[in-house]
Amino acid sequence: MSSPQTQQASNPEFDALFNGTLFSLLTWQQLDEFWQRLDPAGGWYLYAVGEPRPLEAADAEHVVAFIRAIDALLRREHHEDYCGIVYTDDLERPRLIKIYDPNHLGTSCGSSPSRILPGWVMSRMPPSDLTPVHVVPQSRRRWWQGFLDLIRGGSPR
Q1: Domain range for residue 136?
Q2: What is the count of structural domains for the chain?
Q3: Quick one: pLDDT at residue 19?
Q4: CA 44 – CA 62 distance, rounded (Å)
């Protein structure tokens, strides 16, 4: 996972999936089953929106660490008895996963004048640059930096 941005900032394949029809993982059980079906060695790009986009796919070990970390964050901070904030293009063979930040969901009816971007994206293709219209909270930047420090400094637990 590298951070310097030297490649194309837009990927039409990514954009089509990102802006296309997605399916919600409504229940925590559906999310558990989804994570289990996911191939961590599938060439996943891990992207914290508002941070530099990744130019390389993460290895399987880091994808597993990310799934554990993001799942724990969602369960800790999404104070609902349902999930409903993780979306994918395909429930069986996903190529794109949007994970919304439980602390920045916007309006549920979609009537907001600005589009709410997910907090994190997993994709099997290089992502396009995504620039949020809101300021990403420092707590989220620290969370992401802590995750990156973990994967740079040693083996995930």
Answers
A1: 12-153
A2: 1
A3: 95
A4: 10
Strand order from edge to edge, sheet including 120-123:
23-24, 86-88, 96-99, 120-123, 45-48
In whole angstroms, give the CA distance from residue 26 to residue 83: 5
Nearest alpha carbon to residue 36 among 8, 61, 68: 68
Let me know how long the chain is.
Answer: 157
Task: Note whether residue 143 is domain-resident.
Answer: yes
pLDDT score of 129 more than 90: yes
* Cα–Cα distances in angstroms (integers) from residue 37 to residues 90, 91, 149, in the given order: 11, 9, 27
Residue 1 lies in a domain: no
pTM: 0.85
Residue 6, in any domain of the structure: no
pLDDT for the residue 3: 44
What rounded mean pLDDT belongs to the chain?
86
Coil/strand/helix, residue 51: strand
Q: How confident is the model at residue 79 (pLDDT cuts 50, 70, 90)?
A: confident
